[in-house]
Design goal:
334 residues; three-stranded antiparallel sheet; 32% helix; globular
């Protein structure tokens, strides 16, 4: 998944004493935080410790790279039996199932075996393109319809031995967790970014609305296609042009359509979603990327989602966006 550039917002920071930048490693990437007009009672070192601890807890709950994370223990757990889970894991799974249903299966947190088959997981790139029989066999083993989430008490049941991978939504959830932590400390002006997924609130260090740049599909990742103001919102982007390989002249991108078991073949290069929370934006960006420009924009219009797309054409990249996204472009162009 490629991401939204936070450079325009992050570079705006002034040296004011109560305006800070925090950063560190997490979830196989890095986080960057800008906080503005921090209350005097909050100490920078302590805040950094709390952020690191919160993101470490997200990893302990949802990582597939930590063998004894809550998610991995769940994946090894019983089938056909309700398993108690944390409220956070139940929240993310419930949201994932909601997006799965709304997208007609385009977003599926059980797609991992197919991602691995095509060489975009822990396994190396295959020497040969997977055959139809292998793909069909794995397709029978996936499907979020096998998951049932219950709340109060929080429990999840697998009707089949599917394995859950939350990599397409966990970073967004982590952003939301950090945003909640900052607000609990009385911080009302911030930008939180994890691996390109971000959330903003209040004003930037120049006392203006937060302004970020949507990346153009450029290999350097340094070209801004559109600057937008997004104070009080979350932003996530999904695309396939950076992570791919070629076999016999055919390009295979890392995004796998769970409905076909094969890499995406449409011309949608990237999709950016603006939402109230980052987990929603993160999951929807992946779902719309899988759906493609036509079906994705149709869903965005039907649900009044703020969505911006870059579609590959013979002449370059074409911008397409939903009605709900238009106000963000109007502000940037005034």
């Amino acid at each position: 998944m490629w991401t939204v550039a936070g450079a325009l917002a992050l570079s705006a920071c002034s040296p004011a004493e109560r305006n800070w930048q925090l950063s560190g490693p997490t979830m196989g990437t890095r986080y960057h935080i800008t906080v503005v007009d921090v209350p005097a009672a909050v100490k920078k070192g302590k805040l950094q410790q709390r952020v690191d601890a919160e993101l470490a807890q997200v990893n302990r709950e949802m990582s597939t790279y930590i063998d004894d994370s809550e998610l991995m223990r769940f994946n090894r757990g019983p089938v056909g039996q309700a398993v108690p889970v944390s409220a956070h894991l139940a929240d993310v799974l419930a949201r994932s199932l909601d997006i799965y249903r709304r997208s007609g299966g385009a977003f599926d947190v059980t797609v991992g075996p197919l991602v691995n088959l095509w060489g975009f997981g822990p396994q190396p790139e295959p020497e040969k393109v997977p055959d139809d029989a292998t793909i069909d066999r794995l397709r029978e083993q996936i499907g979020s319809d096998a998951l049932t989430v219950e709340r109060n008490p929080d429990r999840v049941t697998r009707s089949r031995p599917v394995e859950v991978d939350l990599s397409a939504i966990a970073k967004g959830h982590g952003v939301d967790r950090v945003a909640a932590l900052l607000e609990a400390q009385g911080i009302r002006n911030y930008l939180v970014e994890v691996g390109g997924e971000l959330r903003t609130q209040g004003r930037n260090p120049k006392n203006r609305p937060w302004r970020i740049g949507i990346e153009s599909p450029d290999p350097t990742g340094q070209v801004v296609q559109e600057p937008i103001e997004v104070s009080g919102k979350a932003v996530a982007t999904s695309g396939d042009y950076r992570n791919y390989y070629e076999r016999n002249g055919v390009r295979y991108a890392h995004s796998i359509d769970p409905r076909t078991g094969r890499p995406l073949q449409h011309r949608l290069a990237s999709v950016t979603v603006i939402a109230d929370n980052c987990a929603e934006a993160d999951g929807l960006a992946t779902a719309l990327n899988v759906l493609g420009a036509e079906a994705g924009l149709e869903l965005a219009q039907a649900e009044n989602l703020a969505v911006f797309m870059l579609v590959k054409t013979d002449a370059g990249f074409e911008e397409r966006y939903s009605r709900a996204f238009e106000p963000y472009l109007e502000k940037s162009r005034q």
